Amino acid sequence: MIDDKVKELIAIGASVSANCHPCIKYHVNKAREMAIDENEIQQVIEVGKMVRKGAAGEMDKVISAIVKDNKEL
């Protein structure tokens, strides 16, 4: 079973990767209320950024292929 701290840290990373502004504000504030260490919060933010950048890079490849080949979406 995952404890509440881990759930909140996962929610922060997911919020970053989803580009959800209200979500990240909510979950960072909630983590701080739970006295989760700022270093841990920053670490999961960095992981979320890596996921977001990876997904954006892959989307760019798909877009380029579609435009280059004049494919329909």
TrEMBL record:
Residue intervals of the Carboxymuconolactone decarboxylase-like domain: 2-51
Entries under SUPFAM superfamilies matching the protein: AhpD-like (SSF69118)
Pfam families (UniProt xref): CMD (PF02627)
GO molecular function annotation: peroxiredoxin activity
Cross-referenced PANTHER family: ALKYL HYDROPEROXIDE REDUCTASE AHPD, BLR3452 PROTEIN
Protein name: Carboxymuconolactone decarboxylase-like domain-containing protein
Organism name: marine sediment metagenome
